[in-house]
Amino acid sequence: MTSMSLARGHVEVLQFLRDRTSVVFTFLFPALLLLLFGTIFGDSYDQAGVSASQVYASSMLAYGILTTGFVTMGAGLAMDREDGTLKRLRGTPLPLTSYLIGKLILVLTMAVAEAALLILVGVVVFDMPLPDASHWLTFAWLFGLSVIVCTLLGVAVSGIVKHARSAGAILNVPVVILQFISGVFIHPITQLPTWLITVASLFPVKWMAQGFRYVFLPDSMKSLEAAGAWELGRIAMVLGAWCVIGLVLCLATFRWSEKDR
């Protein structure tokens, strides 16, 4: 099954790379937003001497993963279902697990490339310092859990998308909303009403962004978080819980074709 999964992943990556419009939009849009926000709000926080652009550079990693995982997976599965790809694959020896692992390989490849581009922009354009070794270890498990969560939720939500042509528009609505209430586009997050921060805390994006700020920003910046601390243990627990929730939702909503609705 491993060889079939890798082969399917290779096919998924090649198919994505052939669509130049998707490649450009997926990779450049988060970086362009980072350049825009970082340039407009590029002042410094007095208490830490950290520029707003550096904060955006770290927080936007959560946005990049959410876009590549949730949106790409959700829209891709909806398209494969509508054009009959899933129905044809159902009659082949390729198991569902290998198909989904192939999609995960695509998302992971895209997420790594997206993260590298955002970090490069942050370091080169906005002088964001690179973290030490211990923080890179935190980055590794945080990045892995974030990719898994967003991918599983993308698979789950694809089951309720009726038409592939509307998938992008539908999936981007919660993505944009979560960026604003989760401290990605608006920081410090304490500027938001308390009830809105509570709502954001129910979803993984707030914790993803907070974790990436821990990785790339100095410890003094934790005072700007909602709890005044980085809360790494809680971040791991919330993302782990969402992995379980995402898996349950996948099993409940996945279908091979529209007739299975």
Automatic annotation (TrEMBL):
GO cellular component, one term: ATP-binding cassette (ABC) transporter complex
InterPro entries for this protein: ABC2_TM (IPR013525), ABC2_TM_bact-type (IPR047817), ABC_2_transport (IPR000412), Nod_factor_ABC_transporter (IPR051784)
Topology with respect to the bilayer: Multi-pass membrane protein
TM annotation in the entry: 21-41, 61-79, 100-126, 138-157, 169-189, 236-256
Source organism per UniProt: Actinoplanes awajinensis subsp. mycoplanecinus
Limits of the ABC transmembrane type-2 domain: 21-257
GO MF annotations in UniProt: ABC-type transporter activity
Keyword terms: Antibiotic resistance, Cell membrane, Membrane, Transmembrane, Transmembrane helix, Transport
One BP term from GO: response to antibiotic
Full protein name: Transport permease protein
Residues making up the signal peptide according to the UniProt record: none
Family: Belongs to the ABC-2 integral membrane protein family.
Keyword Transport assigned: yes
Principal cellular location given in the protein's record: membrane
Location within or outside the cell: Cell membrane; Membrane
